């Protein structure tokens, strides 16, 4: 196995920077996510095991999830020794210059049965962010600004403080060439990234159709991660933006027990409307 | 105006029985709902005023709301003197033997901006009932049992304590001829009431399609009221079950501010899945 290194294109979550514990990549298409504490790593591995072998998941839906390659004990990013990691496809492998955005779906991140401590933490975060008002909240992003030819990244604390208008604005900036400017986002790449038969909107609608009937899992605190290649936009004819949607973060997935995941479905529907509004404007 | 009297077919909410304050009917097709306290009556009248004159509401959606006839000061049901009432079409007027069910939609009945007192009350109710787990909760019903030829009514306290399995079961009993029996509900009227091009499911799906794009209102603490005529089932060829869905209770409707009502939409989608499951089984 090649030497593991910090991922270049991560946009949210626990990052392996400055000697902290975070995910690693092998540079050959695999992503190593260290087990999160308090049983969350075990939960996530359990979900991937269940999902990978679940014959009730349609093939076209499977493509919206990172491919799972089991777990592996490797040297942790923070030098604390060997730790178990979940091994996944590195979804941005092969992208040289991707813009990416992580959006946590659902107006509620707690769920029946959690401890009062966790319940109160989640409820506080849901009320302080746009989760309650919009049914989703931004968790992080990395947007390549074409005018200044560099990435625009915003601190987690700032993203956490986003209000409704900020949430709306950054979805426009995500597909604009002038994301770093104070001027109105030009949405230059909206139709290429959000639109079209293979674009983000079409993918989100396909996912939503599944969520309207699937009662296998409830995806608490799960994120939509969307990304696209800027290189092909810079060099026209470079194969397209290859815009993709993946669901990520399954540390709090529950058994659906025959009930639709109304919390995720409602939030996803709200998010979809925001993307539709951008395409229509 | 004719003498006002207690409505015969109300299934939930504040009832005008035993000298308490509740709605009245005139026996000629009008329903009089007394203004609820703490500004809720004013809010509801304001909603009806706004909705009635809102040109952005499609005609086919308007039919899912009771027709509004303004407000009127009439003698209250509890003999406390004259009080303002909201005047509506009595939706079950012309039904001689209706079964009816009131289902409060949404996993959350509180919303941003409410007092901490109201927030805590709502949150407690949402967690204690099926609102959080199912995205809806039963608020009351009145089901005509064909075997015993009488209505099955359950106390509010009991309905409030319903768990997931109870919620599922009563949706089957609603369309069964043996609802009072302990045996398995026969779902004898499922296809006639829930199914078909004019049935409950078709109406719910039409409503849902509107909720996927409408950003005019957020319907907090609002109910789906569904009802049908038993008389026509008893006397075959009597004109059909005339199953209908109406949205009721608008004391907590908010401006949508360009955002989809993800709380209502998620809950409605979950409720729809329960009806679909009954039709498929």
TrEMBL record, chains A, B:
Coiled coil residues, start to end: none
This protein's UniProt keywords: ATP-binding, Kinase, Nucleotide-binding, Transferase
SUPFAM superfamilies cross-referenced by the UniProt entry: SAICAR synthase-like (SSF56104)
Top-rank taxon, per record: Eukaryota
Pfam families: IPK (PF03770)
A GO MF term: ATP binding
Reactions listed under catalytic activity: 1D-myo-inositol 1,4,5-trisphosphate + 2 ATP = 1D-myo-inositol 1,3,4,5,6-pentakisphosphate + 2 ADP + 2 H(+); 1D-myo-inositol 1,3,4,6-tetrakisphosphate + ATP = 1D-myo-inositol 1,3,4,5,6-pentakisphosphate + ADP + H(+)
GO BP term, example: inositol phosphate biosynthetic process
E.C. numbers: 2.7.1.140, 2.7.1.151
Main function: Inositol phosphate kinase with a broad substrate specificity.
Family designation: Belongs to the inositol phosphokinase (IPK) family.
PANTHER family on file: INOSITOL POLYPHOSPHATE KINASE (PTHR12400), INOSITOL POLYPHOSPHATE MULTIKINASE (PTHR12400:SF89)
Name by which UniProt lists this protein: Inositol polyphosphate multikinase
